[in-house]
Design a protein that fits this description.
The complex is a heterodimer of chains A (353) and B (272).
Chain A lengths: L1 E10 L2 E11 L4 E5 L6 H9 L6 E6 L2 E2 L10 E4 L11 H5 L10 H14 L15 H13 L5 E5 L7 H18 L2 E6 L2 H7 L2 E6 L2 E6 L1 H6 L4 H4 L6 E8 L5 E4 L3 E4 L12 E6 L4 E4 L8 E10 L4 E7 L6 E5 L11 E6 L5 E4 L2
Parallel strand pairs in A: 3-8, 3-9, 6-7, 7-8
Antiparallel strand pairs in A: 1-2, 1-4, 4-5, 9-10, 11-12, 11-14, 12-13, 14-20, 15-19, 16-17, 16-19, 17-18
Helix pairs in contact in A: 3-4
Chain B lengths: L11 H25 L16 H6 L3 H34 L5 H9 L6 H14 L6 H26 L3 H8 L4 H12 L1 H17 L2 H6 L6 H8 L6 H27 L11
Helix pairs in contact in B: 1-12, 3-6, 3-9, 3-11, 6-9, 7-8, 9-12
Classes of the chains: A alpha+beta (353), B mainly alpha (272).
């Protein structure tokens, strides 16, 4: 649906987007996730046509977009501050884009009524737009864009200004709406949770580049770097060193060696890497098990409802290791010796930073 | 020692100072309406008696009414034309990067501080050398030269503060640039444009120097007042006339200032 090929954008000497290529499929809920300054908004504005591209091409539905100004592109957008027209009432805001379609007044009213129904604000047509709450403005902005039945809807941090409860409710509504209409949604957000809960796929951006494009599960299970690994849940990071004498192994700070197996991404012998292990992938026992195990001392214990998070100090490592314990956590009190074991395939190897 | 009441305690000396400041500014002006109701012909205390005669007298003067009509015509043309001309200029200054923009913007504002006398002589020289007949048209042109900087200074902050994502949204919804200007930019900035019309109307209506140099046989209201100052017995009527002009001008300027603030984006609305 949208093909972004080798797009770069420079503002003067500032390189906002660097050689980004992405393919967004029809009907997909796609997110651009990154901190401010990562280039995600610039990329979205280039798709919308508000910014020109410095190099590269953008295709929508197979058609090159370079020569099309924003008003001729088959996309619509929900703006960060909603950009509701203050001098028009709700109905005229929603019907704004219908003018050039030359529809009858009755047909327009009908379509607006349908939209008001869809955004759960029936009867709000005559309201002044300045009287709307943040959440209502957000819905009106959505209706105003969707009434034109675009192939792609762009959303620029649409929920950023809402409070937490309303945001979660709107996230759910947004997802349901997208699934019902089957329109391609491209969402820009800096909120990792929002991106991961809403999207089919997420492009993680940093410093103008796309770091990783993956499904939320993929980002969770195969994060490309420390930042992405820290997106959801907690994560233990260890310093590691690659060993390639015989079986490829990695030496993990405080834990000893692990066979790389499926995680081997061809790093050379002696290379430094970061090893990440999820707290739930480590197994903790109160008694020494047979086989490979690392002994440690419980330093702190948190009750997380149904399970415990134990922070265990081990020799050769300054920060304690976090381990999630489903059963038996109550018996492991601070100060008590414990043993931790893990499977080699539960480790993640990424660039040291 | 008096009890310390906090960093933001009221400051009495400053309050008194401010009151005196305002008094000195407006005291001279206050004499005009006071003496316009005085039944004596001469401006001196004590006041003799209350009368509305001088006001009634104004409406008996045909040349005065003609001058008022001339002033209204000129002011109407000046306000509409200078606002129409100032809108694109202010938009260009507010939005686009162009070479020499800073000096250009500076020069646009310069007539604000040039003495009216000099501007008047300059324009008269120009008009004479072009061989143009002096008339209300030349007055209108002179007034536009004076009003344009004011018009831009009223419109510019509006356009700079205007959130362009409104226009982006309009384009995004399929409207080409001119349509967007007509449907979004103009109506969203309507209070500022109205303020600009009122401001330029008032300035033109009250202007003397340009009218003095550039008007031919048809005089504007300030010209009429200037002409009548020679006749002492007319002076109280002129005071009555001046009072009316004062009220009228104040009302327009207050309305203009008030309008200029309507719908201005507040600090909480973030800009990209």
């Amino acid at each position: 649906m949208i093909s972004i090929r080798n797009i770069s954008k420079a503002f003067g000497r500032v390189q906002a987007v660097r050689d980004v290529s992405l393919d967004i499929k029809a009907g997909e809920f796609f997110s651009l996730l990154g901190a401010s300054g990562s280039g995600k908004t610039t990329l979205l504005r280039m798709i919308a046509g508000f910014e020109g591209v410095t190099s590269g091409t953008i295709l929508i539905d197979g058609q090159e977009m370079q020569e099309y100004p924003p008003h001729l592109r088959p996309i619509n957008m929900v703006f960060q501050n909603y950009a509701i027209f203050p001098h028009l009432n709700v109905r005229d805001n929603i019907a704004y884009g219908l003018r050039r379609l030359g529809l009858s007044k009755a047909r327009q009213d009908e379509m607006v009524a349908e939209m008001l129904e869809m955004i759960a604000l029936p009867g709000y047509g005559e309201r002044r737009s300045t009287q709307l709450s943040g959440g209502q403005m957000q819905r009106v902005a959505l209706a105003r864009a969707l009434i034109l039945k675009p192939k792609v809807l762009l959303l620029d941090e649409p929920l950023g200004a809402l409070d937490k409860q309303l945001r979660e409710q709107m996230q759910l509504e947004l997802r349901q709406l997208q699934q019902r209409l089957g329109i391609t949604f491209v969402l820009v957000t800096h909120d990792q949770e929002e991106a991961l809960t809403l999207s089919d796929r997420v492009a993680v951006m940093a410093q103008g580049r796309v770091v990783q494009v993956d499904t939320p599960t993929g980002l969770y299970e195969r994060p490309k770097n420390r930042t992405i690994a820290g997106f959801i849940g907690s994560m233990n990071f260890f310093a590691g060193t690659v060993h390639r004498h015989g079986t490829p192994e990695i030496e993990i700070e405080g834990l000893g060696r692990a066979v790389m197996n499926g995680h081997d991404d061809g790093r050379p012998d002696g290379a430094a890497a970061t090893v990440a292990i999820r707290p739930e992938k480590l197994v903790l026992t109160a008694h020494a098990p047979g086989g490979r195990a690392v002994e440690g001392v419980v330093q702190a214990r948190q009750y997380l409802g149904g399970r415990h998070m134990l922070h265990v100090g081990i020799a050769g490592r300054a920060t304690p290791v976090a381990i999630a314990v489903q059963d038996g956590g109550a018996e492991m009190a601070p100060g008590q010796p414990v043993w931790m074991t893990w499977k080699d395939d539960s480790i993640l190897i990424m660039d040291a930073d | 020692m008096a009890r310390y009441t906090g960093f933001y305690q009221p400051n009495r000396p400053l309050t008194v100072y401010a009151a005196i400041f305002v008094l000195v500014l407006y005291l001279p002006i206050l004499f005009i309406p006071i003496f316009s109701f005085n039944s004596g012909v001469y401006v001196k205390f004590p006041l003799e008696g209350f009368t509305l005669h001088w006001y009634w007298d104004l409406f008996q003067r045909e040349r005065l009414l003609l001058a008022v009509w001339n002033s209204i015509k000129v002011a109407a043309f000046v306000s509409v034309l200078s606002t129409l001309i100032a809108i694109p200029a202010a938009l260009a200054i507010a939005r686009y990067r162009m070479p020499g923009k800073a000096p250009a913007a500076g020069f646009i504002m310069l007539p604000l501080v040039l003495p009216g006398l000099i501007m008047g002589v300059a324009l008269l020289t120009l008009v004479n050398s072009l061989g143009v007949q002096l008339s209300l048209v030349t007055v209108t042109i002179g007034h536009m030269v004076i009003c344009l900087p004011y018009a831009i200074s009223v419109l510019l902050p509006r356009f700079i503060g205007f959130n362009r994502s409104m226009e982006e949204a309009s384009a995004d919804l399929g409207e080409p640039p001119l349509r967007t200007f007509w449907r979004i930019t103009l109506p969203c900035n309507f209070p500022g444009i109205l303020a600009c019309l009122l401001m330029t109307f008032t300035i033109s209506f009250d202007e003397f120097f340009m009218a003095f140099f550039l008007s031919g046989s048809q005089s504007t209201l300030p010209m009429y007042i200037w002409g009548q100052l020679r006749f002492p017995q007319d002076f109280p009527s002129l005071l009555a006339l001046s009072s009316l002009i004062l009220v009228f001008s104040f009302a327009l300027i207050f309305a203009s200032l008030k309008l200029a603030r309507i719908g201005q984006p507040t600090a909480s609305e973030t800009k990209r």
